[in-house]
Amino acid sequence: MAPQEIYIRNVLLSDVQYVERLYKIINSAYRTDESWTTEPPELVNGDRITRDGIRDLIQRNGDPNHILLAFLPSDEEGRPDDVVGTIEVKPDRTQRWGLIGLLSVDPTQQSRGIGGRLMRAAQEFIRDELEYEEARLMVIKERSDIIVWYRKLGFEETGGGERLRHPSFPKEGLVFTVFKKRLV
C-alpha cells in the first residue's frame, strides 16, 4: 500500500492526552496477533508498557530519553491529530550513540511505510539533534522476521548480545542481538 501523509514530531507535555491511545497502540503492536511485530508469548508476556510508564515517558521527555510520535491528519483541515505510532531514542552520552526502541505502529496502519518513516526520523534525530554518528537497537534473537527488516534498513549485527531479565520475559535469560548503523 502507498505511504500516507504522516507527521512525526518530538513528544510534548500536552501529549498526555494520548496516553490511552498510545497504550493501545504499543501493546497491540507487541502483544496481539494483529501485528507482524508481535512478540511470541513463549518469549514475553504481559503489557509491553503501562499507562503510567507512558505518562512518565511523556513527562520526562529529553531526560534523558526522547519519544517521537507519528500522526496522520484526521480533520477536514489536514491537521495531524490522529496518533498512529511511536519510537524512543535513548542516548548513551558516554559512548555517543542512540539506542532505538519502542517502535510501535497501530496494527491497522502497518505495512504503509509508517514504521520505516519512524526509523528514519529516529536516526535523523540521533544524527542531527544529539550529534551522534551511530544508532543501535536490540532485537530478541529468535525474531528472524524483524531482524531481516532491520538489515534492510542498513543495520548490522555488532557480534554482541545482551541477556536481559524482566518480569514480562517468561523465558529465563532472554538474549537480545545488538545491531548498529553508522549515520554519517
TrEMBL record:
Coiled coil: none annotated. The keyword Acyltransferase applies. This is Acyl-CoA N-acyltransferase. Residues 41-184 form the N-acetyltransferase domain. Keywords: Acyltransferase, Transferase. InterPro entries: Acyl_CoA_acyltransferase, GNAT_dom, MshD_Acetyltransferase. Transmembrane segments: none annotated. GO terms for molecular function: acyltransferase activity, transferring groups other than amino-acyl groups. Pfam families: Acetyltransf_7 (PF13508). It comes from Jimgerdemannia flammicorona.
